Amino acid sequence: MLVNIIKKYTQNITKYDINKYALSNNHKLKDREIDIIYSELHNNIDSLINNTDYEINKIKDKLEPTTYLKIIELINFYKEKYKDYL
To answer: What is the pTM of this model?
Structure first.
């Protein structure tokens, strides 16, 4: 059930939303990073949900190190926050 909610939500995410979310977490993204994240969310969401660590590691070299670390930090935060639902 939660997976379907996540998939539905990510279908509607825009590049503006990604940038706004990053800024709200005190992180500035480069335009190409926004494009990479947007593409992964829209084209690879099933794999991201089911095999998060592996999929994020695949794009590690395409992102700035600080961006990659921020993504890992946020993934871990939300995994802990919603562990009873995942």
So the answer is: 0.89
